[in-house]
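> Could you send the TRAP transporter small permease protein prediction when you get a chance?

Sure thing. Input:
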Amino acid sequence: MRTFLDRLYLAAGWISAFTILAIAVLISAQIFLNFATRVFGLPLPSTIPSYADFSGFMLAAATFLAMPYTFRTGGHIKVSLVTARLPVRVRLVAEVIALFAATALTAFAVYYIWVLVAESIHFGDVSNGTIPIPLWIPQTAMGIGMTLLCISVIHSLIETLLRGEPVIAASEEA
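Output:
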């Protein structure tokens, strides 16, 4: 199960990376269109419709999809300056308490993101841009990312309890 979950977190990280690449391609295409239209007078459209909306939605997706992989690899900010000075047993207790709190917070966020998705579907919410995008599409990417983050926190909590030591090193320790 661990290998499957780690591969799932890695896949979400790769999807996030490709989403960032897609943002770069979209923005670059917009810059090229502006340049080609103004400098060379080419008969091209001067703007990609709703490119800013698409970029924003992709950025939200990339952010949320990157969170589980970043968490599991110790990339998130951690207060290791304090915990490194604690005795080993106290450090373990602090880690378990932090993981329980993170589980509660991420589970809360997961629930309400999926409620938001359901409401957007129910009410037919769309973006205000030139191209109306159903809002449940970018919200679903957020929900998937947050759900995977919650699973990764629970995964880390269970591993920490079974091993009797923290399983995620702070980024400067990795």
